[in-house]
Amino acid sequence: MNNVRGSALRAAAGILLALALLLPPSADAQDAKTEILWLGQSAMRIKTPGGKVIVTDPWLISNPKTPAQYKDLDALGKVDLVLVSHAHFDHFEDAPALAKRNNAPIVTPAGLQSTMLELDLVPANLAYRVNKGSVFMPIPGSNIKVWMVHAEHDSELVYTNPTTKKREVHVGGEPVGYIIELENGFKIYHMGDTGLFGDMKLIGDFHKPDLVMMPIGGHFVMGPKEAALATKEYLKPKYVLPMHYGTSPQLAGTTAQFQEALGTTPTKVFPISPGEKIEF
After folding, report:
1. Where in the chain are the domains?
2. Whose CA is closest to 44, among 152, 188, 157?
3. Hey, how many other C-beta atoms are within 10 angstroms of the C-beta on 16?
4. Distance (Å, rounded) from C-alpha 72 to C-alpha 256?
5. pLDDT-based confidence at 6, cuts 50/70/90?
6. Under 8 Å between Cβ of 277 and 245
7. CA pair distance 39, 64, nearest whole angstrom
8. For the CA atoms of the chain, what is the radius of gyration?
9. How many angstroms separate the CA atoms of 194 and 215, rounded?
């Protein structure tokens, strides 16, 4: 009997997802704006047209580039979803705390999801299980759609055991980026940490992102020249928001170098500073 009931519930959930994918954006969502607040490195607060808040790669408290007022996690307001691209501290450090204080799902690479549960970093109900594949809808009651896509990087979790005080290295899964389709159809590609790879063109052709949040710092990620090539040849978005630069001496790439390498292009670049916002 339980198996039958479980099968029926799974079937019903599948039907609801299929219907949600077919629903057109609401008139309110189409007219409302999307607000992006850059918090330094790869941390973004996205306020969606439907009133949801998504935070990416939250490294805030110890981030030297995060404005002082946002080092208080409550200053972000109610958060509905946390997206983490990989396990390195400068993308993950404040993610468990942010998810727990907002009772929000936290999406991570699959291996990192398992490690979070093993180390009891978040409750099981918040550790959203997914992998690189098809679309998923992690915010209950919302038609926001997310895809997890490839990134060229690594993703081990370095963890200080609170009992032994010793440094441990745990599985962090494969690094990823995210395609986020908002209620009005506006698509954001948060690239996470990545080097240049040819299948960026496939991602661009398939998803056609409007806005790309792109690392340009170099050394650990794409530098300005690689980022410019990805923009012009592979992704061809309407807008680029440069990120992941200027936080450490190794991340020496600048927005000026990126724009120079980009040259004349239809893509609009937003060279903003941490703490500044843009709207669409």
Report:
1. 195-269
2. 188
3. 11
4. 31
5. very low
6. no
7. 10
8. 19
9. 7
Residue pair 233/200 in contact by the 8 Å Cβ criterion: no
Q: Which residues touch 200 (CB under 8 Å, ≥6 apart)?
A: 230, 234, 235
Output the CA torsion sign for 202, 207, 211, 213: negative
Straight-line distance from the first to the last Cα atom of the chain, in angstroms, rounded to the nearest whole number: 50
β-pairing verdict for 167-170 and 157-160: antiparallel
Are the C-beta atoms of residues 53 and 79 closer than 8 Å to each other? Answer: yes
Distance CA 186, CA 238 (A): 11
> Is residue 31 very low, low, confident or very high in pLDDT (cuts 50, 70, 90)?
confident
Neighbours of 220 (CB within 10 A): 18
Residue 218 clears pLDDT 90, i.e. is over it = yes
pTM (2 decimals)?
0.89
Which residue intervals of the chain are DSSP H helices? Answer: 2-22, 27-31, 89-92, 95-102, 110-118, 200-207, 224-229, 255-262
> In sequence order, what DSSP letters do the residues of 122-160 get, joined into one string?
S-TTTEE---SSS-B--STT---EEEEEE-SS--PEEEE
Angle, alpha carbons 23-149-184 (nearest 5°): 25
